[in-house]
Amino acid sequence: MFSKVYSAGLQGIDGYPVQVEADVGNGLPGFHMVGYLASEVREAEERVKTALKNSGFSMLPKKVTVNLSPADVRKDGTAFDLPVAVAVLTAYGAGGAFALEDSAFIGELGLDGQVKPVRGVLSLVSAMRDAGKERCFLPKENVPEGMAVGQIQIVGIENMRQMMELLNNPQRITSEDPSSWSFLEEPEQELVDFSEVSGQKLVRRATEVAAAGRHNILYLGPPGSGKSMVARRLSTILSSMSPEEQLEVSKVYSVCGMLPPGKALLGRRPFRAPHHTISPQAMAGGGRYPKPGEISLASRGVLFLDEFPEFRREALEILRQPLEERRVTVSRVHGSCVFPAGVLLAAAMNPCPCGFYPDRSRCSCNEQQVRRYLGKISRPLLERIDICVETSPVSFHDIRGKEEGNESSARIRQRVEQAKEIQRKRFEGSSIFFNSEMGSRQVRQYCALGSQEEEFLQRAYQAKRLSARSCHKILKVARTIADLDGAAHILKEHLCEAVSYRDLEEKYWGKGV
Description:
Blueprint: E1 2-11, E2 14-25, E3 30-34, H1 39-42, H2 44-54, E4 63-69, H3 81-91, E5 103-105, E6 108-109, E7 115-116, H4 121-130, E8 135-139, H5 143-149, E9 153-157, H6 160-168, H7 201-213, E10 217-220, H8 227-232, H9 243-255, E11 271-272, H10 280-284, E12 285-286, E13 291-292, H11 294-297, E14 302-305, H12 313-317, H13 320-325, E15 327-332, E16 335-340, E17 344-349, H14 367-374, H15 379-383, E18 387-390, H16 396-400, H17 409-426, H18 440-446, H19 451-463, H20 468-485, H21 492-500, H22 503-509
Parallel strand pairs: 3-4, 5-8, 8-9, 10-17, 10-18, 11-14, 14-17
Antiparallel strand pairs: 1-2, 2-4, 6-7, 12-13, 15-16
Helix pairs in contact: 2-3, 4-5, 7-17, 7-20, 20-21
């Protein structure tokens, strides 16, 4: 007897429909699985047979053939256990009262017949919904993820006995009640706050601009001046995520199995701070069968690279294309995967190996050492950083002074949220969320200048020998500064501030240094 049920597989962070076909007939008894399967999928043969036996189902010795289609796409993971078990049982004649065409099955089986949770449920259920399925049977622990997708009925399953009872009695099938589940991760209380940052008014302002428009930022200064301290508080002033951003970020974490237990969606923007020994593959994602890397795990959040020049050159240069295109394309023999890379890059570095250049009273490095150290950051990569800001040594008064005058993260976040709302209305109906994501067409449309501002930008362009990319980044930053001021048009003072954030390139990397 032939049976067919529906499931889904993962390719990168996206799901795709899979048909699980089972045929039970006469012949030499055996259990055969075909369809370009990874080792963990092939092992489903033993898991399914043992789970069905321990669940009380007896199967006559027959020739059982299971095919996972499309056969030219590699299937991996353990989510096919449940659909294989259902297909085999229905091929044996069980569960005949239920119409399988409108349903999908996802889940791993234990040897005792229990249905265990799997990773990537957000993407898998989304693929089933897009394929027109009305309901999806999931492990009980994955129900919140399934319901977060929406527009598809979710049925939680605990074991194979319950699964087959529902198939034999379709009138007992009831969808999960969304009110009894919590989808969104509760934001934790922040352990750090901007009120703890002493002095550094210019750095605080630059960080606020970076957060408001999602502009990449580089902190440069001597050791102990607060570069890492400010960067680690950047996430406390970021605007809240939209539902679309929550789903995008949560898909990546779901595929990697990193969602909080019992939660379907991340409630706050990610903050990732990999060590400088990270490999290029771990940074961008990859492997024989590609998985997301740190860039994708930080998408819609902050990727903080402390001790910027200490990273391997290959790991830094691999950032260039993702920072520009806001996605990572990983190509392998078995196919290509596209991962999101909408990160806010925050980097911190010293100006030289000892950290005190250009203060010659303290710096012990010669010009060649300084040039070699700064040369670890290439100019093409530097061009992709919108804001460069220098931290100054902190005075004793700043350290020991009272903190009452320092603005808190909550207060700064209010201004960032207001700027975000302006950007939301500006880009409504498009795939753009922030000023930093504008392309050339949007820059011409939303960054129009008056004659005085146009003349000023032209002088800056010629004097600093800017590239077209740098000029566009200045306009994007100026647009964000204007949004923070509530100005409808970019004024000269906004351009002046934006241009000043690129002065460090000439100071430290200009003239051959």
